[in-house]
Structure prediction request, 530 residues.
Amino acid sequence: MWVRRTISCSSAETLVIAACAAIALSLRFYQLARPGYLFGLTEYDDGVLFGNALRLVSGTIPYRDFAMVQPPGSMLLIAPVALLAKVCGTGWGLAAARLLTASADTANVVLLGLLVRHRGPVTVGIASGLYAVDPDAIVAAHTFLLEPWLNMFCLVGALLIFGGDRMTTDTRRLVWGGASFGFAAAVKIWALVPLGIAVLLLTAVSRRLRPGAALAGGAGLGLGVPLLPFVVLAPGAVARDVVISQEVRNAGGHGSPLGRLTDLAGLHLLPARFGGGLSLLLVAAAVAAGYAVVYLAARRPVSALDSYALTGAVAVTAMFLWPRLYYSHYGAFDGPFLALMIALPAGLLSARLVTPVSRAAVAVLVGLAVVAAVTLQFQSESRLRGVQAPAAAANLIPLGACVLTNDAAYTVVVDRFYSDVPGCPSMVDSFGTLIAMTSGRSRYASASMLHPVVELWRADLGQAGYVWLTGDTAGEIPWTRQLYDYFLGHFRLIGLAQPQLSSRFIPHSGLYVRVRLCLHGTEDQALLRQ
Prediction:
């Protein structure tokens, strides 16, 4: 009888996980099916992240040969796709990276379900279902961004160190779990927050230092192995680019707490009359009441898994309220913690219902809530439109030409990222280069701090045969009167112009071709490649 019941519960949880994964995959692939989303232009960061990998597989060393403001984990992950792109083209390579990222985020739905499967199908349905329809997670999965991969390795780590509600004391599992958290930090340093929570919680629960040390040691390996080669090849540059510049960049200001909390909770998808602070307070009150009933009124001890979920949700949410900058895809990192924080007590509450009818009613309510969220999300995605790749670019830019751009996504999408011209600039991230070389101060830096950046652009312009400027370049290129005059004196606009407000000493957006190239005081047309 016990075996039969165990099999049926296991089957129910598996079906719930599969259903939530199917919903997640449908929402994420439907998003990629929108015009301009699979092969078009939707983001600045994906061109940079994929471009870093393209440079690496071509033998160019990040941090040493070009600025890179993220740890190397994502670049190493996608390097096999970058190798494939050398054969099939960078546009197809980026499309493959987008499909893989959507699939990785769907895997997060499965991992969440596996993490709480011991609590029953209702808990699984809430945890996996919430993340499947999380708007911020879906935004992060629309292209090659870091958060889906970051979440995947953090959830793998959590799955290894938790056995049901308890934390394992098995050294091998702790080392592998720590390694997964460590590699997550190599993707994005935010993973250090849940890792730190897990180490402290494990030490407190076990009342010994050895388990926490095993977890921390595994994390050191997971982070150190991918990071060490670049630290050796570019001493000091990794810390400057990844840590110092990002911290300084986010200092000196705060965003709107209410707006960010509303975004994190996914309430911005609701109609205006239902969104805002009141809905946020109602959700917070419902979660607090659930914890009070389950743990205080019932005098149930808080398990290690509950502590990890609640502490992680509070810490990560607070982390997002502090920095000056915030983007919706950041909130995807909070998604698993918020889903666990809501699902764990809700599942226990449903388990206390004694009649099959009441339990069925809870399951129906959860299903209806997921269906409503899916409907809202599909409606939101149906309005999405990406920017189609400019078809004229392939005709205007010869294959293998040396193209310098402030937005690598454009050259990646149209397969003009690679150059076979000797000495072609290796810059990938124009904005990242600016913040790295000014230690995060960017355009607010002093003239003396901006001078090396200006000199770098002057040198790169001296080697480029084409320059492709997109959008407002003022925040990415430190234009001075001398740099502006040099640019206008050596390049002319030939197409792909974009509407732009006229600014003093800032060229208009568009594709420019070199009309005069000065090398060692002589005129040279070799790089024009026409």
Summary: Strands lie at 162-163, 166-167, 403-405, 466-469, 491-495, 510-514, 518-519, 522-523. Residues 2-80+89-381 form one domain.
